[in-house]
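Shipment paperwork, digital attachment
Item: protein structure file
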Amino acid sequence: MKITIVFIISLLLFYSASGQKFIFKEDFNQSLGVNWKVVDDKPSYSGPSNWFIENEVLRQTSNIWAYPEPQEYTYHLGTHVFAGSSDWQNYTINAILKATDNDGIGILFRYQDEKNYYRFLLIEDGNNGGPKRKIQKFVNGEVFTLYEKVVEDAIPNGWFSVSIDVRNDSIKTFINGLQFNSVVDTTYSKGKIGLHCYAMSGAYFDSVYVSEDFFVFKQPENITDYKDRKPYVQLSTQTSAAVAWVTKTKSIGMLSYGTDIGNLFQISESEPANKHLIIAENLTPDTKYYYTVYNEGQLFADSLSFSTVKPREQDTISFLIWGDSGTDNADQHSVAKLINNETDNVDFAIHVGDVSQFSGEEYDNIYFSKYSRFVGNKNVYTAIGNHDTYYDGAQTYLNDFYYSIDPTVSERYYSFMWGNAFFICLDSNIDYSPDSEQYRFFINELGSDKRKSALWTIVYFHHPPYCELWEGWAGDQNVRDYLVPQFEAFDVDFVFNGHTHGYERGLLNGVYYIISGGGGGGLDYYARDWAHIAKSKSIHHYTKVNINGKSFELTAIDKDSIVVDKVSIYKNPTSVENISNTSSISRNDFKSHPNPFNNQFQVNFEIKESSNVEFTLYNSLGELVDILFSAYLEKGIHKFQYSNNRLSSGVYFAIMKTSKDIISKKIILMK
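Attachment content:
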């Protein structure tokens, strides 16, 4: 469905009636190649370009730019399309634009070829030369600036109009009908028109009109646009589940569901709407329900299912993790196909952010359509990434995903339990310092009875505390300062993140850190070493987890279905891990270093009275690995060194026993 721009319709009717002559009109209701030719500037990076028509709007979604730094910021080139006649001389070009990235977008005029033309460029990003508006010319590939001005909000929010009037040697530019500036230049007297992007992965163009007479678009008045979105599962609990969908026209929706296709319950909405959410209640835990969706009695989607949450006693669960979806590119398509193929093999999924790899302005093209089979049958628990916030502070994201029906409860962070695992999702784009509301939520959830009843604790959010694969960024310092100490203090088992485009696995002070940000975005590459990170790979991938009671198996699978990493972790909560502190010795008196260690570590401890002391080493299964020593020791401070090159990487427990007391210390071996 096309975005309706009210003022253009009325103005065109007026000017057509009064004799206005348009020599070119493009509403993008046909294939791009009919009128337009694509050029990617050379040398190009992060390309190729991705121009396409969707819902009668021209889009460009590649982050392509040209030239390495610092030349990149001189030329501000990337990709463009051009159309029209070389004989056009005096004319006004009008277009409607929208940008959801913050780099460069513009209009070309009196276009001769890819190295010779005029340009009106709007560039927002302060790191890339903005915020500025520039009138420029290219002569044999070299750029000359005729006029530039620093402008706050150089690219207006939402849809806006750009108009350029060229008459003889005069060039006048307009934004939303208001003149920006005028210059005089005689280099080119005629030529074609074009549309330009510099590192702009969220460009929209519509209603490109060229008139012989002076004619300027005013500011567009946009009407909210909806398009059909197939159903997706949300708000799963042990006894309820919700189905959401969107229709381009208002309608009364109906959900038909049941465990037996021949015996279905039906729930209808009371009023017509574009956005639909129906909650089925009084369901049975750990049960599959088949469902069909209707609008105004007409079939909208069928052959779908949802499942209720497994209770604590059902301790076999499976789920997927992925993040940083991509930009509707080939790599995303490859990973998405594998994820959709996993639909019948897992219980649910987690997305660790940048659900929209554009700017959080839309989720249909980049998310709902790409993972339609999975989201139509399984609940995906999403986290907010930085890209999800760029357009409107994540408001579009919050409108599309449901984590509570209580308007007083934040949906930016939440928790849930599935089987024997407790999950906490955080939003690392907003405040999570110790005085923040989100931090208080986090600590309360870690200390909750529900979390204490779970065997596994998993936290996920977008920005990792450490990463090896990103040049110029080694991880988030605030996460290290505020969250990592709590992961360790509350014995969190796994932390899943995205943001870094690749796969990483590390183990630090008993907490596993997994980055699974290879959903389709441009890959990051190795830049540094963190001692606790055992594996880092620049690959497009997703991650799969199988929990079977005390066993936790994690597998990373690349876009070619190749297993690139596999780890199995076991825990025995009834043995060494839960040994209590005692009166004659304490954890503060019992230290091992380094921790993690590599084949050798030293233990320092103090006993309050002389005693027989036995020191033993157990693995995470509670199995005896080694007897370190057994001797009578006088009260006071003692230390010893232990070396064993036969042990494999993992979590171990050093157990110290005296004649009266016993204490354990978790230590990590990393080779």
